[in-house]
């Protein structure tokens, strides 16, 4: 009985002792170590009248210490089929980004300032669909609070983008106290108003690593929604830097 | 009337259907488009133009092997509705190549289209393919070139040796087309003249790479030995002969990223080997592209500024005007507005100012998508050419034009 009580007390102490950063770090850890990933993605764009449009793409990413590399190829709509977006993410400086425009057979360097722009006209921005990097945010110093959200106990973690050109001033993430999986993120715009919320409605566990399977983004300012779904995802495929060389854009 | 030219459209449509149905593992894409232009009236020219266009691309990848095919066909409606044919109906094989990749190397043989450059208004180093001069000179429409390429890839770069194995002659429309470059009673000869065989290879040694750091840089250096992309014309009676000549050429194109601004440089030096009519020359272009903060509605605004300078290095040779060099001392100022909506709606406007011959060209382009399948592009252009010099724009004359292109993509 004493042992059980001590364990419960320690667990409770641990629960309440976690800072915003600690929660974010632990949440990041259970999503990390995938080494690399390949998946198909589809995105449903829903306008304020409820009309839907579908976008599809293929994605590859490589987990690296200094920042992940990712390659995305757009498959639909048909006029952008074959357009590719290559991103080298950096924690401490601007990302390196290139766009391949198949109609011109041109690889074009782009400014990472575009990261706050809409991703394929959706309610996701480029920075939303980039790999999450814990070092790209500052965190509230005090301990993270908890609350009940949709029947789950969650940590409330406040983070502030510290990289240039973010479209947000603050993000509040709600992280399950047991699984440390993110259930919801609220995004605050440059005017510090609530812009949109992302609902992480499905995860896949692949080789013991949790991966996002479905995110539903609701924009409260324009009443539009977007649902991003990952399909057929595989991790630890043996991808290397070679698979993210600029040469792959023209293939 | 050119009834036989309707066949290519049918053939390419049939081919695209067959390939899509028979080889599901092969990726195909393409479009069918209707392009319509209206011009301010010019004597003996069609004041409007309608063209049916189709492009089909087929791509096959199997492990280390890949192959690409790109066919383009167009039918100018005046070629079967008018007594004065524009002679702008044709089918064109632009890409047909095979590539084998192994380790850090690749080998490609066949017909290809390449892009070299960094700037927006004009890419002076983009010399590998020729522009199809039967079409709108303000739209990029390159013809493929037969070549062999070997590439070796470093961690952040690429070293390529390319041999273009044949030098192509330019094709022109008939004089009734708005952008026919000569007088009505003048024509272009049937062959491309040269001191050497047109099968004499043009060799390119291309080294490109990237430097990463607080400020990143993409760079490329190209050495070329062979036929110059610049041509000159000699007149015999009412026929112009197109002349090609050999050069040694050094080219570079670079993009530096500093904060939210792209700084661009394209430059070339050309040493003419075997022709006494053409001088050695330099061509330099500098550009800046800056993305402004996002607007409240999520739209993006970008501004572009570019300057082009061309200079011949020897006297008593052909001048920039005789060589039809349009970007010889020109300033381009442009603005891009991207709505960032699900239809990818965007507009680009700009002005090209020739500071030497006092010419202005203004344009605005608009693009959006309807129902995810149809894309609509519209543009308006205004040309005010030199009144004192026989420049390229002066030969086209003062005019305005508006164009709409509606395309179905598959």
What is the ordering of alpha helices and beta strands of chain B?
Answer: HEEEHEEEEEEEEEEEEEEEEEHE
> Using DSSP, what is the number of strands of chain B?
21
**Can you identify the CATH superfamily of chain B?**
Porin
Helix count, DSSP H or I runs of 4 or more residues of chain A: 3
| Mean of residue pLDDT values of chain B | 92
First and last CA, distance of chain A? 65 Å
Class derived from helix and strand content of chain A: mainly beta
Number of helices of chain B: 3
The proportion of residues forming helix of chain B, as a percent range, comes to under 10%
Description:
- The complex is a heterodimer of chains A (251) and B (410).
- In chain A, strands 1, 2, 3, 4, 5, 6, 7, 8, 9, 10, 11, 12, 13 and 14 form a 14-stranded antiparallel sheet that branches.
- In chain A, a hairpin with a 2-residue loop joins strand 12 and strand 13.
- By secondary structure, chain A is mainly beta.
- The model of chain A has no long low-confidence stretch (mean pLDDT 90).
- Helix content of chain A is 13%, strand content 45%.
- Chain A has three helices and 14 strands.
- Chain A starts with a helix and ends in a 16-residue tail after the last strand.
- Chain A has one domain: Clam (outer membrane lipoprotein receptor (LolB), chain A), CATH 2.50.20.
- By secondary structure, chain B is mainly beta.
- Chain B has one domain (3-409): Porin (Beta Barrel).
- Helices cover 6% and strands 53% of the residues of chain B.
- Chain B contains three helices and 21 strands.
- In chain B, the strands form two sheets. Chain B has an 18-stranded antiparallel beta barrel.
- The longest helix of chain B has 17 residues, at 6-22.
- The radius of gyration of chain B is 22 Å and the shape is globular.
- The chains are: A mainly beta (251), B mainly beta (410).
């Amino acid at each position: 009985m004493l042992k059980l009580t001590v364990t419960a007390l320690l667990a409770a102490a641990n629960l309440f002792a976690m800072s915003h950063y600690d929660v974010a770090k632990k949440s990041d850890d259970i999503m990390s170590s995938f080494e690399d990933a390949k998946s198909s993605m589809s995105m449903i764009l829903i306008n304020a009248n409820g009309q839907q449009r579908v976008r599809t793409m293929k994605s590859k990413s490589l987990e690296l210490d200094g920042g992940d590399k990712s390659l995305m190829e757009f498959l639909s709509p048909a006029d952008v089929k074959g357009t590719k977006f290559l991103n080298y993410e950096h924690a401490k400086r601007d990302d390196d980004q290139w766009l391949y425009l198949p109609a011109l057979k041109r690889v074009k360097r782009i400014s990472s300032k575009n990261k706050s722009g809409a991703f394929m006209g959706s309610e996701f921005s480029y920075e939303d669909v980039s790999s999450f990097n814990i070092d790209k945010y500052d965190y509230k110093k005090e301990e993270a609070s908890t609350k009940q959200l949709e029947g789950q106990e969650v940590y409330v973690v406040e983070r502030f983008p510290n990289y240039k050109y973010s479209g947000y001033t603050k993000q509040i993430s709600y992280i399950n106290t047991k699984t440390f999986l993110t259930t919801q993120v609220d995004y605050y715009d440059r005017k510090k108003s609530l812009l949109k919320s992302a609902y992480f409605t499905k995860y896949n566990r692949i080789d013991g690593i949790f991966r996002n399977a479905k995110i539903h983004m609701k924009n409260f300012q324009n009443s539009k929604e977007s649902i991003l779904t990952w399909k057929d995802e595989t991790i630890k495929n043996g991808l290397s830097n070679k698979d993210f060389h600029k040469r792959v854009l023209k293939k | 009337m050119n009834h036989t030219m309707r066949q290519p459209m049918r053939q390419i449509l049939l081919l695209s259907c067959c390939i899509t149905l028979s080889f599901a593992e092969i990726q195909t894409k393409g479009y069918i488009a209707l392009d319509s232009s209206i011009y301010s009236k010019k004597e003996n020219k069609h004041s409007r133009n309608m063209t049916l266009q189709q492009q089909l691309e087929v791509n096959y990848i199997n492990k280390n092997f890949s192959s690409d095919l790109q066919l383009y066909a167009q039918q100018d409606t005046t070629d079967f509705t008018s007594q004065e044919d524009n002679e702008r109906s044709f089918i064109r094989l632009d890409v047909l190549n095979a590539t084998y990749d192994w380790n850090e190397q690749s080998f490609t043989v066949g017909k290809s289209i390449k892009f070299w450059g960094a700037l927006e208004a004009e890419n002076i180093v983009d010399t590998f393919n020729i522009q199809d001069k039967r079409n709108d000179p303000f739209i990029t429409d390159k013809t493929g070139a037969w070549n062999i390429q070997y590439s070796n890839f470093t961690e952040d770069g690429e070293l390529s040796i390319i041999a273009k194995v044949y030098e192509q002659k330019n094709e022109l429309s008939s004089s009734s087309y708005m952008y026919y470059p000569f007088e009505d009673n003048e024509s272009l000869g049937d062959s491309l003249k040269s001191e050497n065989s047109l099968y004499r290879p043009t060799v390119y040694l291309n080294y490109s790479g990237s430097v990463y750091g607080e400020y990143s840089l993409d760079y490329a250096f190209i050495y070329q030995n062979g036929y110059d992309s610049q041509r000159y014309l000699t007149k015999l009676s009412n026929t112009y002969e197109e002349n090609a000549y050999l050069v040694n050429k050094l080219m570079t194109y670079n993009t530096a990223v500093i904060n939210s601004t792209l700084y661009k440089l394209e430059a070339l030096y050309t040493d003419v080997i075997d022709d006494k009519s053409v001088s050695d020359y330099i061509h330099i272009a500098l550009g800046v592209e800056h993305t402004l903060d996002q607007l409240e509605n999520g739209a993006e605004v970008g501004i572009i500024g570019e300057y082009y300078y061309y200079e011949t290095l020897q006297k008593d040779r052909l001048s920039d005007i005789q060589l039809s060099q349009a970007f010889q001392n020109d300033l381009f100022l442009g603005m891009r507005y991207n709505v960032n909506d699900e239809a990818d709606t965007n507009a680009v406007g700009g002005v090209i100012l020739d500071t030497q011959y006092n010419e202005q060209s203004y344009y605005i382009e608009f693009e959006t998508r309807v129902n995810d399948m149809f894309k609509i592009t519209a543009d308006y252009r205004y040309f005010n050419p030199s009144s004192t010099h026989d420049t390229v724009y002066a030969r086209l004359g003062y005019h305005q034009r508006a164009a709409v292109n509606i395309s179905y993509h598959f």
